[in-house]
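Final report, results section. Input specification for complex C-07:
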Amino acid sequence: MGGYGDVQMLNEDGTRMDGRRPDELRKIEIEAGVVPVADGSARVQWGSNLAIAAVYGPMEAHPRKISRQDRCVLDVRYNMAPFSVTDRIRPGFNRRSREIGKVTANALESVVQLELYPRSKIRVEIEIMCAEAGTRCVGLTAASVALADAGIPMTDMVVSVASGKVNGVVILDLNKEEDNYGDADLPMGILPNSGELVFLQMDGNLSPEDFQEAWDYNMGAAKEIHEIMVAALAARYGGDT
Amino acid sequence: MGIPLVPGLLRDHLNELAERDERVDGRGRLEGRPVEVEVNPIERAEGSARVRMGDTIVYAGVKFQIMTPYSDRPDQGGLMTSAEIRPIAGRNWEPGPPSEESIELGRVVDRGIRESGCIDVNGLCILPGEKAWQVIIDLHAISDDGNLFDAFALAAIVALRNATLPAERFDVGEDERLELSCTPIMCSYHKVGGRFVYDANGEEELGGDERIHITLGDDGHVHSLQKGLRGAFTAEEFDDIMQAARARRDELMELVESLEQD
Amino acid sequence: MGDSGDVGQLVIPGDSLGEIGERRAGHGVLRRNGELIATRLGHLQEKGGELSVHPVHTTYTPRPGDLIVGYVEGMRSNIWFIDIGGPFNAILPMSLAAGKVDFGATREYMDVGSAVLCRVQEVDENHGAVVTMKGMGLRKLNSGFIDRVPPHLLSRVVGVEGIMLKSIKEASDCRMVVGQNGRIWIEGDASGTRLARAALSVIREAGHRPDIESRVRGILEA
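Structure output:
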């Protein structure tokens, strides 16, 4: 991040290398109920990202040591398939994946009504099958739909998206080159109905004005993404009344 | 892997069904579940496939790396198959180091591909003694409802058939398609209720006994056989399965050929 | 279930259901900042001033008195751990087993994977459940088959005054016991079991539809 500010990432008309406007999202498609053996699941195709999330539970919390008397625990795993990136990832323990699993769990625990299932656990499995910048956001968004698909009670959905900056211009939803050569990356996890945040990270260098703009881009995009999530669930369950 | 609950009643029920030549989902003894195949769904892989058999869903991805040939085989590249059944695939799959099952899955599929010679490891040489291609097939299960073996094997061969060597990215020439000399296809048979059935689903695997995996190539050539789990079978039983495998292999080969992408 | 309220639009967690006004928050609905919000994926239902969500999925939550079908998942010298299909296992103490069991002999009596018909004795405030096999008809299930139906569709399986269950039993000539935890024991010959399972399959797929009774009848009479 940084040090590449001279790379030209914008066209003369202000559009980005992939033709998007600065405030435009990549194409997002969401489908619920894609893992037949799971209690709930979702597939998110976001640009070239492909994430599949599945939920199992609530179930008995094994091993005993993770069980809590007063509430449910979320057992979240985030994993990238070896073939999901240009340079193959060797399977096995991965620090980055472990960290993302943890912050994803924190975000989701803020909305799941954990107190309804004491001494139980809910497994959330996030697999990134193809990666193209923003995988943690795609994974969190997929997990949120999978939890709803599984019938897990939550106070809101979680929508996750990131913004950044290239060539002095704040942009929404970074693609791979923009993430590599840009000045900043601000991923957020937003509750669309209350506007609160459950996930926030930032890397790079943003002035106060740019930070506000990136923030606003994310908040604005959250509404659009939320609609796609709703449509995915409605496609599976709605219209059958 | 966590030990799945094996309700004792399941085996009895499967036996009872077998006596009437029936299966839990109403299929014929040698009938497979509906098969769906998607070619190259993963942009970042050099070749990939998604296979669905009933409710079993898997992905295979082919990645190429440059390796230094072994000193005793300076003209040869390498082939590696790795299978991972992540917890996403089922309630009973637990996180942790590869289970015995996943290791066996990877090895059985690997054997089928390797022994068929469909990939000419000499043809993977770029610069003798210095550079050669290593082909890595990663098998990734998303939903396990039985018979990961055949799903993995089919996904692997479709991914290979549609794979492109990324020579330009490694600056060793022009991209070109990976060439295969034949098409090994696996058919697996499980003994359920005392008789062999094709394409066992999750319940049948749970309540069944030994299994046999047969990999056949072009013109009926046999490339690998593997028997798994405890139990014994007769020569007649084997002949019967072999015949079924030949027929099924032809059906799947037609499907694979119909998917070709240029 | 009774179903006297209209089952309406699909809602997802977080959806605002408007200002509280005169309404009460029922199942799957939360009061927050003067408005009602949905917390579950399901269909909105309003009955007698109470707004609730009829969920598309339910997890079984044990209540004292429930008749359930459980699986033995583990044991100690004097208790068994029973998988009841809910968020946590129940325990079956040796003293509540069907017959006399010697201390340390739990495994011989019922091993891992055994299926049992038992009743929920009590549920403590931490949602820990104790089950008992002392009671009429409660026993280890040594034969038959166990099928599954989501708990919120069980009322469809039983029907008004038990009519649906009776029809399925008669048409299939099977003994059947409906566990409140969504597990249904079926015992009969292979074709009868298949018929019963087919009826349950229809209920699983289409149990929420108003024409479910005629659909099941179609299967049973075919």
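Chain C is about 20% helix and 35% strand. The first helix of chain C runs from residue 106 to 109. This concludes the modelling results for the funded period.
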